[in-house]
Amino acid sequence: MRGGAPGIMSLVTDGDVAVVTGAGSGLGRVVATTLLDAGYRVALAGRRAEALEETAGGRESALVVPTDVGDPASVAHLFAEVRQRWGRVDLLMNNAGTFGPSGSVDEIAVEDWSSTVATNLTGAFLCAREAFAAMRAQRPQGGRIINNGSISAHVPRPGSAAYTATKHALTGLTKSIALDGRAYDIACGQIDIGNAATDMTAGISVGARQADGSVRPEPTFDPVHVAEAVLLMARLPLDANIPFLTITATTMPFLGRG
């Protein structure tokens, strides 16, 4: 949403331009299609072109750009394609991520740690860097960046040092972008999600290891509610921001974890 127009559920302005990473599956696909349905023009970024095309569904308002978010040149290409096609960037949804290795800290290979950091943290930084530069330079100036955090940005699961560390770090990145963006009408917020039902979290509903070592199934919820929450954040005028929003399955063991 450009400018400072009033109203939480204001309509999208002239097909505002969004970039969604990890748009080929899971939450990224649900968020991207929800934004498309809401009238956004959406650039779909992800590693697999075929999966991105499935998300696009042949819509003229969707732009498919295969992207490796951990590669600076690939991310620069993504945003160059968006600016060439639509001339601006109004919204970035930093969604791409991976669970990474499982095990206690002494069992995690350095290369697996580095790969997780490259996707979850460096990837978010690279995309935010390009989006911030575009939003700062464009007229009208400004835009919004939404980072996909996690319940693991608050508390870890057993054996998740790499994933948890990147999600905690993402919170710091969100705060820094929000502060640095004030002078340029760039808002930044984070959505922390617990147990949305996607392919990535399919095992949780069957059995997830708990802090006491037991394995128990956990409740999940429809990812469309995540997309609706993202849309709520995205539709705010730029003089308002939701810095952090947490959405979980109501009875998941988050508040009692440990």
TrEMBL record:
<dbReference type="InterPro" id="IPR020904">
    <property type="entry name" value="Sc_DH/Rdtase_CS"/>
</dbReference>
<dbReference type="GO" id="GO:0016491">
    <property type="term" value="F:oxidoreductase activity"/>
</dbReference>
<comment type="similarity">
    <text>Belongs to the short-chain dehydrogenases/reductases (SDR) family.</text>
</comment>
<dbReference type="InterPro" id="IPR002347">
    <property type="entry name" value="SDR_fam"/>
</dbReference>
<protein>
    <submittedName>
        <fullName>NADP-dependent 3-hydroxy acid dehydrogenase YdfG</fullName>
    </submittedName>
</protein>
<keyword id="KW-0560">Oxidoreductase</keyword>
<dbReference type="InterPro" id="IPR036291">
    <property type="entry name" value="NAD(P)-bd_dom_sf"/>
</dbReference>
<dbReference type="Pfam" id="PF00106">
    <property type="entry name" value="adh_short"/>
</dbReference>
